[in-house]
Amino acid sequence: MRNPLIKHYILLIVLSLFLGSSSFAQKAKKNKVRLKANYVKVMNSEVYFDLQATAKVNGENITIPNVELVIYNVVDDEQIELGKATTNMGGKSRFTLKDLKSIKPDSTNTYNIEISFEGNENFSRTSKSISFKNASIEATFVKIDSINYISATLINKLTDSVVIGQSLTLQVQRLFKPLLLKEFNETDENGSILVPIPDGIPGVDGNITIEVVLNDSAEFGTVKAIVNAPVGIPIVDESTFDERTMWSPRSKTPFFLLILPNLLTLGIWGFIIYLINNLFKINKS
Amino acid sequence: MKKTDSLLLDLAPQKFGRIGIIWTWTLIIISLIGIVAYIDQVIKGQVVTNMNDYALWGIYISNFVFFVATSFVGTVTVAILRLTNNSWRTPIVRIAEIISVAAIIMAGITIMIDMGRPDRLLNLFIHGRLQSPIIWDVIIIPIYIVISLLLLYFPLLPDFALLKLFFEKKNPKLSKWYGKLSLNWTGSLAQKTIQAKSIQLIAVLIIPVGFMLQTIDAWLFSTLFRVGWDSTNMGAYFISGASVAGVGALVTVVYVLQKVYKLEDYITDYHFDKLGKFLVLMCLIYLYFNLNEYLIPQLTSKKEATTHINVLLTGQFAPLFWFVIIGGLIVPVIVLLFKQGRKPLPMFIIGLLVVLGSWWKRYLIVTPTLLHPFLPIQGVPESWHHYFPSLHEWLITAATLAMALLIITALVRYLPIIPIQRTADEQEELELNKNTAK
């Protein structure tokens, strides 16, 4: 009876050693995910967090796709789950809030957000916290002595006071990337900037959409105000969308292509019918 | 001089001998094997072919273009020779019409074989865009089939009436069929007038339709921005190539039928001589267009075009390319320039060479271009860099060729391959002229 028991014990020890080492090996393989989070507030519009997950694997920085991130609003000791976001193939994700009222600040009127990754078989658990205060940019388009300007004021909403010495960027909205007009416009003692708009910028119907941006500020995050200025050169829209072209859908076939081939086809079929009729005539005569 | 009765004895359709029966069954078996392969293709999908994301048109489209080209023989020999009053055409026109019908029917079937979902064929008519040359092809092919059938049928009417009488006692059932097909032909003046007018109209009509068919076929390629296809030369290039393929096929079939049916009295060396000269002319025109097609891109030296042409001239496809150019065009021209080269047997060999060259020429038009896209082929299996047809593709293609020959065989079995009434009329006219001269 002893011998089989000893055998069982040995087997158990070997198995536990094997399983232990393999689970250790699995743990050792896990890489650490680095999370990046940017808070962006668009004036009179949405608030969003641009998230990115990366990791250093075999000495190389790679983006991590398809990881689920949980976004929490931390209010003093309480964690309120705001939602989840999954990274795309570029390891990026955007989590959007309707406005800033959707989250609560702490007792110091600072907003605290935690982005958490629960970990998976390849990557270990990690989280990232960001804090920011509420600021706003009031921007308008003004014309002084026939020169077009953008006037903007940066306001700390907590104290309801202007923010002095912060650098604002002026850029024009474009399809892929904004067109930079002027960087490093420091706010003066009134918390304002006045920047002339260069001439000759093309825009649809002459409208150019200018963004005044407080970029990635440690205190306020990114705040963006959008101003429409009707001072651009109108873009002549050369799109053939909805026109009758060779590359249009069936319903938008060019008229000449409807008329000519159909006329030819009908004409030829007319002759064919005439010829078939001749066969009947031969049969009868 | 032969009277109508003796003409009928010589030219009326005859039962096949042993070789004819073996030939027919061989074609039927090849066709059946191809049908089985096609059913398997429909069940499993085009995964059974070696076509891929790059070589998306393979042997089926090459074969389709070959059939379309061969069908041009009806336009060339019947219509053009008729309108230019070349009387030597008489004993060969019906053979040309038969080849034309067989080729265009098989062209229509072959293009359907290339469809991944043939059950959606009707969608081409329902949702097709008139901007697409594919739809023009869908429109023109049925038209050409109908006109080719009419071109074959109208001149047959008097012959059907003669055959009805000829087979009345020998084979009453067959005679009945010929009677129905003759549409009560009595040879009255009214019937003759309508028939002559109709044939004249078809002869005129088939020329633009034939040219349209070949041009549309060319535009299927030239409207695509691809190296080797994007050429304004393409329409004329296809028309001249089709003339070569068509006349080559005609020469081959004429020789076989002359030997099998012992028609040496009707299809003489004179006809082969004329056909030989005609084929030389077609080959020279096609060579000229080939020169345009390959020399100009080589001279302008656009990188992609040079790569493509180098692959043809010295690369992977060079053996095939030079076989097509030398074997399929230059050798025929040289041989046929000599009178001895235009004798029936050399003509038959040259005809076969031309047909073979024409078939591979279509393969060279389709495949190398597809394997040389503007963007490099990357991130795909190594096999996608090349294309060679799979067993399914070979079996199905062989079956389509066998079916075309089967259509020709069936028509040859039941139709007089040389117009009987017309031959009789011509002989009568000749005799009359001789008597008048005396």
Task: Write a short abstract of this structure.
The complex is a heterodimer of chains A (285) and B (438). Chain A has helices spanning 2-29, 255-284, and strands at residues 31-42, 47-57, 60-63, 68-75, 78-86, 92-97, 111-117, 123-124, 126-132, 135-144, 147-156, 161-162, 167-172, 179-186, 192-196, 202-204, 208-217, 221-229, 233-235. With 285 residues, chain A is α+β, with helices and mostly antiparallel strands.
How would you characterize the overall build of this protein?
The complex is a heterodimer of chains A (285) and B (438). Chain A is α+β, with helices and mostly antiparallel strands. Chain A has 3 domains: 102 residues, Immunoglobulin-like (Sandwich), CATH 2.60.40.1940; 101 residues, Immunoglobulin-like (Sandwich), CATH 2.60.40.10; 26 residues, no CATH class. Chain A contains 2 helices and 19 strands. In chain A, strands 1, 2, 3, 6, 8, 13, 14, 17 and 18 form a 9-stranded mixed beta sheet that branches. A 4-stranded antiparallel beta sheet of chain A has the order 5-4-7-9, with no helix packed on it. In chain A, strands 10, 11, 12 and 15 form a 4-stranded antiparallel beta sheet that branches. The radius of gyration of chain A is 33 Å and the shape is flat. Chain A starts with a helix and ends with a helix. Chain B is mainly alpha-helical and 438 residues long. Chain B has one domain: Formate dehydrogenase/DMSO reductase fold (Up-down Bundle). In chain B, 74% of the residues lie in helices and 0% in strands. In chain B, helix 5 crosses helix 11, helix 7 packs antiparallel against helix 10 and helix 12 crosses helix 14. Chain B starts with a helix and ends with a helix. The interface between A and B is medium-sized, with 28 and 29 residues.
